[in-house]
Amino acid sequence: MTIVDLVRLFAEPLSTAIVMTDIDLERPGPTILYTNPAFARMSGYAAAEMLGASPRLLQGPGTSMQQTRMIARKLRAEGRFHGVLQNYRSSGEAYLCEIDVRPILDGGGKPLAFLAFEREVVRRRGRPSRDPHGRYRPIVPETFDVGGMCGAPALFA
Ligand SMILES: Cc1cc2nc3c(=O)[nH]c(=O)nc-3n(C[C@H](O)[C@H](O)[C@H](O)COP(=O)(O)O)c2cc1C
């Protein structure tokens, strides 16, 4: 089983969008190895459209170059980045996206891949919302496979 297979098993049922890339930060990298269904629902891009592309595909006219330079700097220096960016859906619509990029390290601390947890932000400032989802737009599953979940061994019972 490859690391992509493992991440797929973990990320496929999540309602948080996941983007996995290789560790090559030189243009045209990083290259996308996997995106989950929640990412497709948020961005409008099917996994097949993203595979082999760079996350720069999500950038557009309103994306701040200062921000993207900051991502590159942070990823090179610390191997991680956490911030809010302006991304664009496949329809061209802009959305604010909180992005937390972390490396997956092997036992010796060598980076194997980057994993980004991405959530659309609908409310950045002000009083906390009464909405239970707070400042994030929930990504609603198309179908929720309760049967599958219940059929799984009760590891955490
Ligand atoms: C896992 C991962 C996910 C990323 N997701 C986004 C994203 O959603 N939007 C974005 O603008 N950049 C994203 N990036 C950053 C770009 O891929 C790129 O690193 C950034 O534009 C800085 O490089 P550049 O200055 O060469 O463009 C992501 C990077 C990684 C490693």
UniProtKB/TrEMBL annotation:
Family matches, as PROSITE patterns: PAS
A matching Pfam family: PAS_9
Keyword Kinase: yes
Every PAS domain range: 3-52
Listed Gene3D superfamilies: PAS domain (3.30.450.20)
Keywords: Kinase, Transferase
Gene Ontology molecular function: kinase activity
InterPro entries associated with the record: PAS, PAS-like_dom_sf
Cited NCBIfam families: sensory_box
Protein name per Swiss-Prot or TrEMBL: Histidine kinase
Organism name: Methylobacterium variabile
